[in-house]
Amino acid sequence: MSLHLDARQRAMLQEMGVTVWGPSPAQEAIAQPPATASAAPAAVAAPAMAPPRAQTQTPSPALAERPPAPPAHTTSRSAPPAPAPATTGTATPALRLHPAQALYPTADPAHTPAGLGRGWLIVAESMTPAEPLGGDAGRLLDNMLRAMQLHRHPRVFLAVLERSAPGTEASADIPATLADTVAHLQPAMVLVLGHVAARAALGRTEPLGRLRAGPHVLAGCPAVVTYDPAFLLRSQDNKAAAWADLCRALAMVRSAEAEG
Length: 260
Prior knowledge:
Elements: H1 7-15, H2 25-31, H3 35-38, H4 61-65, E1 95-97, E2 101-102, E3 120-124, H5 135-147, E4 156-163, H6 174-185, E5 189-193, H7 195-202, H8 208-213, E6 216-218, E7 221-226, H9 229-234, H10 239-259
Parallel strand pairs: 3-4, 3-5, 5-7
Antiparallel strand pairs: 1-4, 2-4, 6-7
């Protein structure tokens, strides 16, 4: 580092007792670059740039032909939205109620096991009226009743609900007709199989699970709702629940018979 001290500054520092270590004035003069070299080179002025001219864009023919946009305050009119279709609940299909028929008319009353009551009425929708115990659903119903020993009871009746074909007249008042049937047969239990049969027989619209849970009364007779045999063929996992419903109905009949 060079202090660039002249002779007078050196003399003053020497009088103050400060020793200055550095080159002599002669050496500094030699090391000092010439004035022209030490001066900073003049900045080369850059040529002045003219301000950019505003470029005018010529619209393309496609844009030029486009009509001008409407003012911001105007609004385009559009057709009113179409009304949403009205939604309705699931209606009970048109049904025909066939007269009740005995399923095991040849059963010997003398060999009817105790605890089955004076008779049973079964209301179902998936059976064939002409051959109620035929087909897969009919055979499954037969197995269910045999497991309860009801095949040995001569007073087990089945009232079949059949979906009305086009052009076929449906039954007018199914609950009233079933009430008359119950009053005539005087069964100890009404077993309702399936959601369609439950809605038609009891006039209830709750889901099948809720209908299965609660006890019901049809024309003064206790009633139990369980799964339809045709549904059980499609859903094997519900067979245990259906058997529990049948056992509950059988227990109700036995309890009423014991009390009577």
